[in-house]
Amino acid sequence: MPNATVAGITVDRNDEGFFTDPNQWTEAMAPELARSEGIDELTDDHWRVLKFMRSEYAQKGTGPTVRVLGKTSGVSIKELYQLFPKGPAKTAAKIAGIPKPRGCI
């Protein structure tokens, strides 16, 4: 398991860069993780998605798919792709400190 230092804290991540232990994540890490994914600034909509991702993971053991995100997060699919151009579910999961959602390639 590769380690990485994010916001001054060493965390465990897999080979794709996803946290293996979501409990190691803090909100202070999100801006740094976002920058590493090419997102310069986290807006309120970014945070809404990130908090939704973490909530879904806590309840269901996996992050939501793009379809579920678009239907239930309060952010449309079109907006999701504007917020997370490299792939909403996968990128948001990385920034939110949860494992890659099932169904993401």
Summarize the structure.
The protein has 105 residues and is mainly alpha-helical. It has helices at 30-36, 44-60, 66-72, 77-83, 88-96; strands spanning 3-6, 9-12.
What would you note in describing this structure?
The protein is built from 5 helices and 2 strands. It is mostly helical and 105 residues long. The chain has one domain (3-96): DsrC protein, C-terminal domain (Arc Repressor Mutant, subunit A, Orthogonal Bundle), CATH 1.10.10. The chain has a two-stranded antiparallel ribbon with strand order 1-2. Helix 2 packs across helix 5 (88-96). It is globular, with a radius of gyration of 12 Å.
Name the assembly state.
single chain
Strands, total number: 2
Count of discrete structural domains: 1
The CATH architecture classification is Orthogonal Bundle
Give the fraction of residues assigned to helices.
40-55%
What is the structural class?
A: mainly alpha
CATH superfamily: DsrC protein, C-terminal domain
The major β-sheet equals:
2 strands, antiparallel
Tell me, what is the CATH class?
Mainly Alpha
State the distance separating the first and last CA atoms: 20 Å
What percentage of the residues does DSSP assign to strands (E)? 5-15%
Q: List segments where confidence is low: pLDDT < 50 over at least 5 consecutive residues.
A: none
Radius of gyration using CA atoms only = 12 Å
Can you tell me the overall shape?
globular
Rounded mean pLDDT is 92
**Count of alpha and pi helical runs:** 5
- The name of the CATH topology is Arc Repressor Mutant, subunit A
